[in-house]
């Protein structure tokens, strides 16, 4: 059976299909709540001078990462002279220590050489003494046989026995002396000097010990005049004048994830304790601040999934809500590096934590902080927005 459609019917069918084509997109859009008033931000931290001093050796500019290295130093003029004196003293002590170590090494080498020579002499003497002992043994045996045969007297036997005992004691004495010298040689090799070997070596060893103690004391005094200042370090509460007099130098370091935001000083500038030196952001915690009407905040919960897209980018960044605050809540904008410029009186704030490798690595562009963005909150459609009160 053939079915014929008139031109009019065909036209209506085509128009109906065209009209229904956007419905999937519209239905999908109705399931999402899109906010186009957002900005990428991050916490901003300030670094202040730990001491009075002059700024030197600045190695960073805004938009740089220090990678945990020293970015600037401060020198306290009031304590620099004392610190330099301690440095010279430490260098002098170090040189004396090195000289005495070389002198001790020469002493030890000479002692080892003398001990080895003494051992060689004793071993040579031992060879002769052992030969004499063997000879005395043979003579004793012959005299004993002659005594039995009544050819020699008992007096002859006693003389031979005495000579044998004397030769035996000499051999045993020499062996003990060899063992004693070997033991002393082992002690010298281990750095332990016997008291009866060399007074000069012992005096040098005592001098080395004194120098070690003096170096430690000098370093301790230097540590009281110098401190390494790293952000996040907590100082003990000290009187301001005492601290400024003690600390001669200070160095400033930043965390590995820090990106310099502003630098407020220059080389050669004199600053007082507490003056701001610079500020930085933490790129490991990038966020998007979104302005949302108070009425819609009821639909948003911490931990809710959010898709963020920066204007100018085609891809989405996954994120989650970490903070929801109404329009009248106290918000310290000074804690953040960027803030929404245009907000109505009834707009609350929503903070969305994001993680994106591209933003993290774009240090020169401040990791995208300050760029505008829009956010899509899933699970919040038009029905929830306008009729949520009645549906709940």
From TrEMBL:
Record key words, sorted: Coiled coil
Keyword GTP-binding in record: no
Domain of life per record: Bacteria
GO cellular component terms attached to this protein's record: cell envelope
Subcellular location: Cell envelope
Coiled-coil region: 76-117
InterPro entries from the UniProt entry: UPF0194_transport
Chief place of localization: other
Cytoplasm listed as a keyword: no
Name of the molecule in the record: Multidrug resistance efflux pump
